[in-house]
């Protein structure tokens, strides 16, 4: 859990529909969109299991929010910083070094959903 989890969303981040349950508001996704995201097929061969786990937690915490087209705003684990994340680039420390970070993976999962 991180600071972003305290944010409550009123509309689904994926389809824009009004969210009704507390669980959906905390996650930022309605049940149908959450299922799409959980089952999204992405090539994970470049990622370690803990990165996949972190990417899913980022999504479940509502800590990755679409900005425009393939660009997302992601929140750092301690909730103090935000990054701009695309499927192949990110402004976090790892991303700037050219490393594939879990933010990028989360963006890929959301775009594949
Ligand atoms: Zn939705
Ligand atoms: Zn990153």
Bound molecules: zinc ion
Question: How many H/I helices?
Answer: 5
| First-to-last CA distance | 23 Å
Number of strands: 4
* Tally of domains: 1
Strand order of the largest sheet: 1-2-3-4
User: Beta-strand level of the residues, as a percent range?
Assistant: 15-25%
Rg, Cα atoms, Å: 13 Å
Mean of residue pLDDT?
Answer: 90
Helicity, as a percent range: 25-40%
Oligomerization state of this entry?
Answer: single chain
> Low-confidence segments, ≥5 residues, pLDDT <50?
1-5
The biggest sheet amounts to: 4 strands, antiparallel
- Return the structural class: alpha+beta
Give the overall shape, derived from the CA principal axes.
globular
Order of helices and strands: HHHEEEEHH
Walk me through the structure.
There is one protein chain. By secondary structure, the chain is α+β, with helices and mostly antiparallel strands. Helices cover 36% and strands 15% of the residues. It has one domain (3-112). It has helices spanning 22-27, 31-38, 49-60, 93-96, 102-112; strands at 64-68, 71-75, 82-86, 89-90. It has a 4-stranded antiparallel beta sheet. Helix 3 packs across helix 5. It is globular, with a radius of gyration of 13 Å. The two termini are 23 Å apart. The structure holds zinc ion (2 copies). The site of one zinc ion has 9 residues, from strand 3, helix 4 and helix 5. This is DUF6011 domain-containing protein. It holds the Pfam family DUF6011.
